[in-house]
Amino acid sequence: MKKALIIALAGLAITSSASIFAAGDAAKGKTLTAACAACHGADGNSVNPIWPNLAGQSEEYITKQLVDFRSGARVEAIMTPQAKAIASDDDIAHISAYFAAQTSKPGAADEKLVKEGEAIFKGGKMSSGVTACSACHGVTGNGNSKAKFPKIASQHTQYLENQLKLFKSGKRVNDAGKMMQNIATKMTDADMKAVSEYISGLHD
User: How does pLDDT run across 121-157, given as a tens digit for each residue?
Assistant: First the structure.
């Protein structure tokens, strides 16, 4: 019951930047993404596994991350200055709309780890108190845009692992209610690797 309440409250969390979470114009966004394409690909499908795929990600989540990079709520050496260079809140919305409208390319999973990863993703890990990923990100990994829970299906394995480790170490702290920090703290490196492999192999 307590866990369900925390998830519900986190989904209702409102940030000071909520006023810019309006729908953007994808066509305008396309003209603003030249700098983004260098890492994330022109269509939002990154070819480098340390940089996330943005194609098909929700507008709400992309907008939140860009706002957090600008404010310092989330810090990363490359993205912080890139986000601060975006001219306006409207431009953030347009960029988010463009990448949300793109189609993500299927990822690939290490078959040796899929069964273990699937068990954690769908059922959590009772022995260490790890919550099932599907509780927030959905059984297909497509997330919940209104709650700003991201789409994680087809995401690069290495990127997913890196983010879990950042949450565990406390170097990434922009998750609502410390939900991801609390979950990642209970995961071993092996857990992170297995579930990341499974998630990467999910696709529509």
Answer: 999 999 999 999 999 999 999 999 999 999 999 999 9
Q: Say if residues 148 and 184 touch (Cβ distance below 8 Å).
A: no
Computed over its alpha carbons, how large is the radius of gyration of the chain? 16
Q: Closest Cα to residue 13, out of 202, 177, 198, 192?
A: 177
Query: In terms of Cα–Cα distance, which of 81, 69, 53, 78 is closest to 202?
Result: 53
Q: How far is the C-alpha of 56 from the C-alpha of 103, rounded, in Å?
A: 5
At 124, give phi and psi (nearest 5°).
75, -160
d(CA 82, CA 164): 23
The residues that bridge with 149 in the sheet, in sequence order, are 144
Q: Where do we find the tokens 């519900």?
A: 8
Give the angle subtended at the CA of 182 by the CAs of 177 and 186, to the nearest 5°: 170
Enter the DSSP assignment of 188.
-
Domains along the chain with CATH numbers: 21-100 (1.10.760.10), 111-200 (1.10.760.10)
Q: pLDDT (tens digit, 9 = 90+) per residue, 148-195?
A: 999 999 999 999 999 999 999 999 999 999 999 999 999 999 999 999
Tell the residue number behind the tokens 């990863």, with chain if given: 117
pTM here is 0.89
Q: Using the structure block, give the residue that is written with the tokens 């480790």.
A: 165
CA 154 from chain center: how many Å?
Answer: 11
